[in-house]
Write a structure and sequence with these properties.
Helix content: 25-40%
CATH superfamily of the largest domain: ATPase, nucleotide binding domain
CATH class of the largest domain: Alpha Beta
CATH topology of the largest domain: Nucleotidyltransferase, domain 5
Number of domains: 4
Length: about 500
C-alpha cells in the first residue's frame, strides 16, 4: 500500500541562531527538502526582530519548496527544563497525570513557576517507564511569542535534546535519507549502547540509548567558570565519565562496547577545537564531537546549506516516525486556547457564508421561476388558450401549486432568519482582541439573539477581569458591558473563570 506524501516544518530556536528544516515523509522514509539558518540579533528570544528572521528563512524555503499546509514544531532549550525517567508504581494511580506533576513539582527549578509538563511511555512490557518533561510555561510562551505572527503554524514544542535524539535514531534505522556523518555511521544503536550528549550555551543534556530505547537522561547546568575551551572540556569529561560509570553499574556486563557522541548546539565553540581537548581530558579517543548542523544533499546534487538536526528531529515528531517513543509536547495551554478560538471564529464565518449563499440562491430561484411562469402565461394568452373559463381555472390551479411548492422552500429559511440582525463579527473580534489585557484569555464567544455577545474565558485575578470590562466599554461595537461571573475552576487551577455580557450598538449608535 502506498504512503501519501506529507511535509512538516521543524524550527530550532537557539539563543544565537535560528534554523528551519522542511522534511517530507514518503514511502521510502523521510527526506529533508530544504533547510536554512540565520543569526538572531540579540541573545533574548523575545524581540520582535526574531519573527522577521523566521519570516526571511521561510521565504528562502518557499523559493525551493512548498510550505502551504505544512505544520510546524519548535525545539528549544529553556533554562527551567526538567527531564526525568520515572518508574511506574506498583499500584497504578487513578490519575497518571497528577502523579507525574506531583513528581516534577519537587524540583527547585520549577519552584513558584507556572509549569507546563507532558509525559509519554518509554519501552515495553515490564521495563516500561515514563519520560516526564516540565518547564516554565511563561518562558516557553515568551520564547515563541515573536514567531506566532509568521506563516508557520506551531503545533508542538519540545526540548532540543529530544529532537536531536529523534533525528539520531531515525538515521540509525535508515529512515532518514542524506549523507551520514562519521559519528552516526559508527554509532550503531542496535548492537551497542549509545551515550549522546547535547551541549547548549547553558545546559548539558545527556541521554543513553540501550538497544534503541532511552534508558537514562540527565540535565546539568554549565558552570559559569567553564568559560574557556580547556575548562569546558575538563567539566565535560568528568560529566561524561560519570555517566559511563553509572551505566556500567546498571548492566550485567560492565565495560561493554559503548559509543559516546557530544553534539554542539548553538554554542560559540567549534567541534574541531573541542575534540582534541576532550580526548586529552578523558584519556580516550572514544569521544566523538559533532555539530548539530550537518551537510545534506538535495536530489543527489550539490550540497546545500547545512541542516540543523534539531530542526529535522522537531519536524519528525509531526510526521510520526516509526518506533518513536519521544512524544513530548510542551505547547502552553494559552497558545492552544488561542488556536481554538481562531478555529471557532473561522467555523462561524463559514457558517455565515453558507447561510448567505442559501438565501441568495433561494432568491435567484424565485426570480427565475417567476419569470418562467410569466413567459408561459403570456405565450398561452397570445395563443388564445386562457380566454375561456376552464383555462382560467387551470391557470389558477397551476399558480396555487407553484406557490405551495415555493413556500415549502422559503418558510424554513424565513423561520431561521426571523428576528436575526446582521452582526459585525470582524469588528467584534477585533474589539475583543484589542481590549484583552495580558494574561486574560477568551475561550468562548457567543451571540444567539444578535443583541448580546457573551464572552467566557480565564483570568489570573478579579482585577484583571475588571480591566477587561473597562477596556471593552471603550470599544465602539458595545453599548454596555457587564461582568456577570467570576469563579474558581473545578480542576484546582490558579486561574479563574469569568463571563462578560456585552450589549451591541445599532447603526445609529443606540443599544440594539
Amino acid at each position: 500500500m502506498s504512503v501519501r506524501t506529507k511535509t512538516a516544518l521543524g524550527i530550532d530556536i537557539g539563543r544565537r541562531r535560528l534554523s528551519v528544516a522542511l522534511v517530507e515523509k514518503g514511502e521510502p522514509g523521510f527526506r529533508v527538502l530544504a533547510a536554512a539558518s540565520g543569526d538572531l540579533p540579540t541573545l533574548e528570544p523575545r524581540q520582535p526582530a526574531h519573527g522577521k528572521v523566521l519570516s526571511r528563512l521561510l521565504a528562502q524555503l518557499g523559493r525551493r519548496s512548498h510550505l502551504r499546509g505544512a505544520k510546524a514544531a519548535v525545539a528549544l532549550s529553556p533554562d527551567s527544563l526538567v527531564i526525568q525517567l520515572l518508574d511506574l508504581p506498583r499500584r497504578m494511580p487513578a490519575n497518571l497525570g497528577e502523579f507525574v506533576r506531583s513528581e516534577l513539582q519537587q524540583y527547585v527549578a520549577l519552584s513558584g513557576k507556572a509549569a507546563v509538563s507532558d509525559f509519554c511511555g518509554i519501552g515495553s512490557g515490564v521495563q516500561k517507564r515514563l519520560l516526564a518533561v516540565a518547564a516554565d510555561g511563561e518562558e516557553i510562551q515568551e520564547a515563541i511569542k515573536a514567531y506566532r505572527r509568521t506563516a508557520a503554524r506551531i503545533d508542538a514544542v519540545e526540548p532540543s535534546a529530544l529532537a536531536y535524539a529523534r533525528a539520531f535514531v531515525a538515521r540509525e534505522k535508515g529512515l532518514l535519507a542524506g549523507d551520514h556523518s562519521p559519528a552516526i555511521v559508527h554509532a550503531s544503536s542496535v548492537n551497542h549502547d549509545v551515550l549522546m550528549a547535547v551541549l547548549d550555551p547553558h545546559t548539558l543534556t545527556t541521554t543513553v540509548f540501550r538497544k534503541g530505547t532511552l534508558d537514562f537522561v540527565r540535565v546539568r547546568q554549565v558552570p559559569g567558570d567553564a568559560n574557556t575551551p580547556r575548562l569546558l572540556c575538563v567539566w565535560l569529561a568528568e560529566e561524561l565519565k560519570a555517566v559511563v560509570r553509572y551505566c556500567d553499574t546498571q548492566v550485567s556486563s560492565p565495560g561493554r562496547e559503548r559509543r559516546v557522541c557530544l553534539a554542539l548546539h548553538d554554542g560559540v565553540h567549534r567541534a574541531d577545537d573541542l575534540a582534541p581537548l576532550l580526548a586529552a581530558e578523558a584519556g580516550t579517543k572514544a569521544f566523538t564531537v559533532v555539530d548539530v548542523c550537518e551537510p545534506l544533499t538535495a536530489s543527489g546534487s550539490a550540497a546545500e546549506e547545512g541542516a540543523s538536526m534539531v530542526a529535522v528531529g522537531a519536524a519528525l515528531t509531526l510526521l510520526e516516525a516509526e518506533g518513536d517513543d519521544l512524544r513530548i509536547n510542551l505547547l502552553p495551554q494559552a497558545v492552544a486556547e488561542a488556536k481554538s478560538l481562531v478555529r471557532h471564529a473561522l467555523v462561524m464565518a463559514n457558517v455565515s457564508v453558507v447561510l448567505f449563499l442559501g438565501v441568495f440562491t433561494t432568491g435567484q430561484l424565485l426570480t427565475r421561476t417567476t419569470h418562467a411562469m410569466d413567459r408561459r402565461i403570456e405565450e398561452a394568452r397570445h395563443a388564445g388558450e386562457l380566454y375561456t373559463t376552464p383555462a382560467l381555472m387551470t391557470k389558477e390551479k397551476l399558480l396555487d401549486q407553484e406557490i405551495a411548492r415555493l413556500r415549502q422552500h422559503v418558510e424554513p429559511l424565513r423561520r431561521i432568519m426571523k428576528g436575526r440582525q446582521p452582526t459585525d463579527w470582524p469588528g467584534i473580534l477585533g474589539a475583543v482582541r484589542q481590549a484583552a489585557p495580558e494574561g486574560v484569555s477568551v475561550t468562548q464567544l457567543q451571540c444567539s439573539d444578535g443583541r448580546i455577545v457573551s464572552l467566557k474565558g480565564l483570568t489570573p485575578s478579579c482585577p484583571a477581569a475588571e480591566v477587561f470590562v473597562r477596556n471593552l466599554e471603550s470599544q465602539r461595537p458595545f453599548a454596555s458591558v457587564s461582568l456577570m461571573l467570576v469563579q474558581k475552576r473545578q480542576n484546582q487551577d490558579s486561574r479563574l473563570e469569568y463571563r462578560i455580557d456585552c450589549l451591541l450598538t445599532t447603526k445609529g449608535g443606540k443599544p440594539s
